[in-house]
Design a protein that fits this description.
- It is elongated, with a radius of gyration of 30 Å.
- The longest helix is centred in the middle third of the chain and has 26 residues.
- Helix content is 40%, strand content 18%.
- It folds into 2 domains: 290 residues, Nitrilase/N-carbamoyl-D-aminoacid amidohydrolase; 318 residues, HUPs (Rossmann fold, 3-Layer(aba) Sandwich), CATH 3.40.50.
- Helix 18 packs across helix 19.
- The strands form 3 sheets. An 8-stranded mixed sheet has the order 6-7-5-4-3-2-1-14. Strands 13-12-11-10-9-8-15 form a 7-stranded mixed sheet.
- The chain is an alpha/beta fold.
Length: 633
């Protein structure tokens, strides 16, 4: 459903060389994994990895083949793709193999390529490395495909392509999984028996994550655990599932269990399409055998989806990410100020979040340049909608930073402009609002000219996505420091700087964080409070940032974006609210592209950017009807 595939990594209890016990344990795990579509067991799990010279015993090898037949019979009617680790004899040679079984049949056998023969490992004593070309093997009375270059592809969805490698294959420089991924495999499974030593779990986890990241795939790693011989080694059953560099499931060490995850095949496929120019370069899919099977229906999707995909859930990572983003923003501005030899930086400070962040970033850049804060000219421009709270906070923040404060009341200038163009000042329409925004930009630009400076833009990524900016008003600047920072992240950046600074600056920033988001272009209410609330007009930013991530970064269809939003926000918004604002997002995103086609320079800080010179190239007159029709359907 919606491109999700449920995968499992299982570590059953085994006994060394007790093939019947191991077979029953594996069959039990398969039966318990209802709804799983891909199930992976550890390396040599039917016999046990630590059999040593017992691998030379015909009784063991024949028992394994018999047990494979029993597993086939036990899985008849079960269309999950199951990988069992087993020693398999082909001709006079013995191979360490992943045997793929589905619906009562052996689909293919993948032998291990890289046999470790160092330290505690001596696999070459018993096994032969995989042949260089595919062939066949007679197993359980059937002739089946045998080789490393095999991809198992579903009849229902050609994007679901599964390939296997075994333990050491991952740890070498030229892993088979690299070939598999370039040939089209989106899910790589690894049947492993990796002994546990101090520090190895962290290295193993990093290795699996990085492999899934650089191969743009899901990586399912099933590790041997309790039951293997402890004569010289201990095994912890460290099962890991990663998707495109993200750890999505992991077992506890020394606890035999089964872990499961819902893999987003559509996301992987879309990302590969985006990277196709380099990802598929020199791919050799022609050498591969594609074996088609019918995939089981997946169980209920249990994967959790963050309400804030731009923000790490872990506090430690969030602090690290926040500091990095602020450093990127300030580094970009520092370079621009140096290159243009600007004497000042001019910022319109409103007492709102975006201008607060822009001022904080500018202060960082000036500290790096060892320039006095007084060269930052912070301009407050009260107008018809300015409240005492925001005006006061703007002045306090400027004072805390130590910037040069300048106040220009725009009321009379705008009223004069209304007279010039014949606009009734009692009509609070779009002209009423935008004339103020353009007047403010005019003032900032002229002050910058007067002081030999640059106007620093304050608009954020969410506003760019929705077109929530006055064309040639706050839409325009000489460098936009917030242009790739979504609104939900702006709050965290400001909160981080507040906590880091402490004192008076912390108090004023906390008050700004607790202020309603507003352009303040309409008069306040009778109590002097903000009457024009942005999120009442365009929708909650927490929703729009969620939509933005999955529409732009992932390229998902509207129905999938809606499904994910309904899952993520089920405790916050009902489906009618999500539908309303998702439609509004698509309408605005398409209709407002013309504003994004000519935005000022600004540094990219994350995986989503709408710069017309970088990440997002879209015609300004593209139609949204296809996307809106999908939502209506």
């Amino acid at each position: 459903m919606y491109g999700f595939v449920k995968v499992c990594a299982a570590t059953p209890e085994i006994r060394v060389a007790d093939v019947q016990f191991n077979k029953n344990s594996i069959i039990g795990c398969i039966a318990a994994s209802r709804g799983a579509q891909v199930i992976v067991f550890p390396e040599l799990s039917l016999s046990g990895y630590t059999c040593g010279d017992l691998f030379n015993q015909s009784a063991l090898i024949e028992s394994v083949e018999s047990a494979l037949g029993d597993i086939c019979r036990a899985t008849a009617g079960n269309r999950a793709l199951i990988f069992v680790g087993a020693p398999v004899k082909n001709g006079d040679r013995l191979y360490n193999c992943a045997v793929a079984v589905s619906d009562g049949k052996i689909l293919g056998v993948v032998p291990k390529t890289n046999l470790p023969n160092y330290g505690e490992f001596y696999e070459r004593r018993h096994f032969t490395s995989a042949p260089s070309v595919n062939g066949t093997v007679k197993l359980c009375g059937e002739t089946v495909d045998f080789g490393t270059d095999i991809i198992f592809r579903t009849a229902e969805d050609s994007r679901v392509c599964v390939a296997a490698e075994i333990c050491e294959d991952l740890w070498v420089p030229d892993s088979p999984s690299v070939r598999h991924a370039k040939a089209g495999a989106t899910i790589i499974v690894n049947l492993s028996c990796s002994d546990e030593t101090a520090g190895k779990a962290e290295y193993r986890r990093s290795l699996v994550r990085m492999q899934s990241s650089k191969l743009v795939c899901a990586y399912v790693y099933a590790d041997a655990g309790e039951g293997e011989s402890t004569t010289d080694m201990a095994f912890a059953g460290h099962d890991i599932i990663c998707e495109c560099g993200k750890l999505v499931a992991e077992s506890n060490l020394f606890e035999n269990c089964t872990i499961a995850a819902d893999i987003d095949i559509e996301k992987l496929s879309n990302e590969r399409t985006r990277l196709a120019g380099t990802f598929f370069e020199r791919a050799n899919a022609a050498a591969y055998k594609f074996i088609t099977f019918s995939l089981a229906e997946g169980g209920e999707v249990t994967r959790k989806f963050s309400k804030t995909p731009f923000i790490p859930a872990d506090d430690g990572r969030l602090r690290e990410r926040t500091e990095l983003i602020l450093s990127i923003q300030s580094a970009g501005l520092k370079k621009r100020l140096e290159h243009t030899k600007a004497r000042t930086a001019v910022i319109g400070v409103s007492g709102g979040l975006d201008s607060a962040l822009a001022l904080l970033v500018t202060a960082r850049a000036f500290r790096q340049l060892k320039r006095p804060m007084s060269d930052i000219i912070a301009v407050t421009m009260p107008g018809f909608g300015t409240t005492g709270k925001t005006f006061g906070n703007a002045l306090k923040l400027i004072d805390c930073i130590g910037a040069t404060s300048k106040t220009v009341d725009i009321t009379e200038s705008v009223l004069t402009h209304f007279k010039d163009i014949g606009h009734d000042s009692n009509v609070t329409d779009v002209t009423y609002e935008n004339a103020q925004a353009r007047m403010r930009t005019l003032i900032l630009m002229d002050i910058a000219n007067e002081t030999g400076g640059l106007v620093i833009g304050t608009g954020d990524l969410s506003e760019l996505a929705l077109g929530w900016a006055t064309y040639n008003g706050d839409h325009m600047s000489m460098y936009g420091v917030n242009c790739s920072v979504p609104k939900t992240l702006v709050k965290h950046l400001v909160a981080y700087e507040a906590k880091r600074a402490g004192g008076d600056i912390c108090r004023v920033l906390e008050d700004i964080l607790n202020t309603e988001i507003s352009p303040e272009l309409l008069p306040p209410d009778k109590s002097g409070n903000i009457a024009q609330k942005t999120e009442d007009l365009v929708g909650p930013y927490i929703l729009h940032d969620f939509f933005l991530y999955y529409v732009v970064r992932c390229g998902f269809t509207p129905d999938k974006v809606r499904y994910l939003a309904c899952r993520a926000f089920e405790d916050l918004f009902d489906e009618d609210v999500i539908d309303k604002w998702l439609k509004n997002f698509y309408r605005r995103f398409f209709s407002q592209q013309f504003k994004r086609s000519c935005v000022p320079d600004g540094v990219k800080v994350g995986s989503v950017s709408l710069s017309p010179r970088g990440d997002w190239r879209m015609p300004s007159d593209a139609c949204a009807s296809l996307w809106l029709d999908m939502l209506d359907d």
